[in-house]
Amino acid sequence: MIRLPYTIAFLMPGEACRIFPYYQRRLSGLCNGFETSETMHLTIKYLGYPSDPPDDRHMLSLLPSIAEIAKQFVPIWVAVRGIDLFEFACNRDPVIYLKVYPREPLFQFHQMIRKKLGSSIDQFPETDGEKYMPHISLSREGKISAIDRIRKVIYRMRRVEKREFRLTHLVLLTHSLIYPVLPT
Fold this sequence. Notes:
Layout: E1 6-11, H1 14-17, H2 20-26, E2 41-48, H3 57-61, H4 63-70, E3 76-86, E4 95-101, H5 103-117, E5 135-139, H6 147-156, E6 163-167, E7 170-173, E8 178-180
Antiparallel strand pairs: 1-2, 1-7, 3-4, 3-6, 4-5, 7-8
């Protein structure tokens, strides 16, 4: 099982979840599994890894500060168009994701959380700052053995219709629970 960090993210609205089966059908047989519509999200910022055993109290204490920052950015409109993948050098399964636009307001939100929370949260050099890539994961379990076929599907879907969504449901994802950041 993949160990995931505490994450500030937008859960996807119902109209966004209705398009996921379209992509999943095209990737059928190329992935070992897909994200569920209940937990499909757009990450704004990873905050840190849980301790062992997990104790959410520190992250929960940050929720008022995160909510104050979020008021400047929520609601936010985004569009998805096409898919891409993150490939890893260490023989890990690729992550296949929906491409999200526009990047700039999401990047500003990401940066503001980094700046305001500072040392209260962990830094993630591989995904922070200029390396932040807004995306919605479809599968964290793309088959490495099918990478060439996955690339062909990505190429064929490059001109798929753009879909726009209003994101309002900002949450803190933990190892086992989802906490709202702002009232919905």
